[in-house]
Amino acid sequence: MSPQQDQQAEVVEVLVVGAGQAGVATSEHLSDNGVPHLVLERERIAERWRTGRWDSLVANGPAWHDRFPGLEFPDVDPDGFATKDQVAAYFEAYAEKIAAPIRTGVEVTSVTRHEGRPGFRVETSDGVLDARFVVAATGPFQRPVFPPIVPAGPASPLQIHSSDYRNPDQLPEGAVLVVGAGSSGVQIADELQRSGRQVFLSVGPHDRPPRSYRGRDFCWWLGVLGLWDLETPAAGAEHVTIAVSGARGGHTVDFRALAEQGVRLVGMTERYDDGVLHFRTDLADNIAAGDANLLALLDQADEWVQRNGADLPEEPEARVLGPDPASVTDPLLELDLAAAGVTSIVWATGFATDYSWLPAGALDESGRPRHRRGVSAEPGIYFVGLPWLSRRGSSFIWGVWHDAKHIAGHIATQRSYLTYQAPTA
Ligand SMILES: Cc1cc2nc3c(=O)[nH]c(=O)nc-3n(C[C@H](O)[C@H](O)[C@H](O)COP(=O)(O)OP(=O)(O)OC[C@H]3O[C@@H](n4cnc5c(N)ncnc54)[C@H](O)[C@@H]3O)c2cc1C
């Protein structure tokens, strides 16, 4: 595209793509730095909180924690857990409060670097823009992924990803296999079992912090212990599935309690042969590693109390785990789906990113962002909201606000160099 043709394009200094929490936070910090910008959102503000999650979902962290510093939840007890609709309303109110320049219903389809001049040509569903800087705020969880273990076919169970799960009534009658024991998998399995379904839950490695300990929520403990601030670990070691729940007022995810309730625990789902699913023999190890993670956090919390002389009540019962359930001591290694009446599989197996619309220089050979703390290897492109962008908390509500501040500051600094005028003699 020639510079001539680009002269037709709307010119924006900074284009932020996406108006979830990451885009709203970026807009706030750009405004604070006096940087003109536009946010384009293909659907509505905080769309994923509105329509990308199941009906009964509440925030995993308490309202005092899972929010931006500039606004409290108006209608949620600070120690309570906001519903997904309250979270969406919160970000809409926040965008209004900061007068974020958001244009909804516009999708960004490609960003290409100009030749011979700075900035990018941005193609959207509503025309072409010319942007000096582009911030990708399109979310940590863009493309649902699940392994192609069970072939689709008329005789196969219904298979959906957790992002398409809404409520138990959506699934055909019968038993359900939920694959994945992070926060989504355990909450969906719990809800399905409570609705009267027979549920099998395939449990992989996970962390399971206590919901609260010695009177403080785990979000507080991760904060004072510096664990939210853990810096980006080595590539490949960054994904920790964390099993927590704010459902029913919040509780510690406890696989023994789930088993007692009637959920049949199984190991990682490995392969499928002729109607039969095979599970790994790792269930006991995964449960034991999750227990060790819980106990390690209690140890760290106790040390912190000791060191700081804090007046927090002791809670020895938090260390009582109880005996392993039969599904752990006598693990089910095979499941004949038809014989067990399994009519649905819910894959709570995570998400991938999709940045195929960005210039190739911003991505590595696998299509993953090349960046340092959100500053892309492709100058002028930025990322916010990625897991572990700068720290463990980066993809969560409170964490993205701090990362967005860094990115807006970086852009402001770049602009100050670019607008420098040498003094005239
Ligand atoms: C089930 C679940 C529960 C969670 N619970 C919590 C919680 O309790 N607390 C917490 O802190 N975190 C939670 N998270 C993690 C995180 O807070 C959310 O995933 C959050 O939605 C991420 O915000 P984001 O702005 O980075 O991305 P998103 O919310 O995904 O927003 C990205 C936006 O970009 C738009 N977009 C995408 N592509 C384009 C394009 N090409 N052009 C224009 N617009 C585009 C999308 O429509 C979307 O609105 C949860 C995540 C999941 C999956």
TrEMBL record:
Record-level Gene Ontology MF annotations: flavin adenine dinucleotide binding; monooxygenase activity
Pfam families in the record: Pyr_redox_3
Alphabetized UniProt keyword annotations: Oxidoreductase
InterPro entries in the record: Auxin_biosynth/cation_transpt, FAD/NAD-bd_sf
PANTHER family tied to this protein: FLAVIN-BINDING MONOOXYGENASE-LIKE PROTEIN (AFU_ORTHOLOGUE AFUA_4G09220) (PTHR43539), FLAVIN-CONTAINING MONOOXYGENASE (PTHR43539:SF78)
Protein name: FAD-dependent oxidoreductase
Species for this entry: Nocardioides albidus
Species lineage: Bacteria, Bacillati, Actinomycetota, Actinomycetes, Propionibacteriales
